[in-house]
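Most newcomers find our protein records easier to grasp once they have seen one. Nothing more is needed to start thinking about how sequence determines fold. Here is such a record, shown just as it appears in the course material:
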Amino acid sequence: MDEKTDTGYGLSTFIHAFQQTLPVILGYLPVGFAYGVLAQKSGLSDFNTIFMSVIVFAGSAQLVAVGLFASGVGPATVILTTFIVNLRHLLMSAALAPHLKKWTRLQKFWFAFELTDETFALHMRSFSKGEAHKPEVFTVNAIAQSAWITGSILGLVAGSMVTDVKPVGLDFALPAMFAVLLVWQLDSLIKYLTALLAALASVVFILAGAGQMSVLLATVVAASLGLGVMQWIRR
């Protein structure tokens, strides 16, 4: 962690955090909108729809949950399914842990609560370059969650006017956002090859019937091989 980590908060911190988070905002608003529409159509109350975005804040898990609610399944199934969907957070935690050693337990808790796939990509980019500024890190998370909650509210408001979100093309916003964040991470040949391997492995696992676990398995395989190659080169 560099010396900027514990410096104070200011307008420049917010502006820099906003600039970093802009691609995430542009993805979260339409996807959060889709979530709000689907939650309303699944029978979830307006309060619970927004409350879930506040206390859960997990896009894929929330979309899966409202789909299960609409199917009439029990709470245990919803909890187990969303747990499996979010197993990738174990990998993110392992990657971030070395950078958070000097943080207090409360800071780690709050950071982990607002961590998503997209903000993980942003933070890893900053941590790897030694540019981690703690107030900025928390501002990035807060801006990202605010965008998601705003999208959820807009979806609720417009829910009665949207009969089907698929023709609108909102489902493309999330993969497009991930593509932008991935490109930001690719600064070496090894990372390019690792990303390509992860993509190929995920397709193989999906075709093999791994389902939701395919992403997790592909990540473990590609990241392990990529790390192994990097360590071999450094010897």
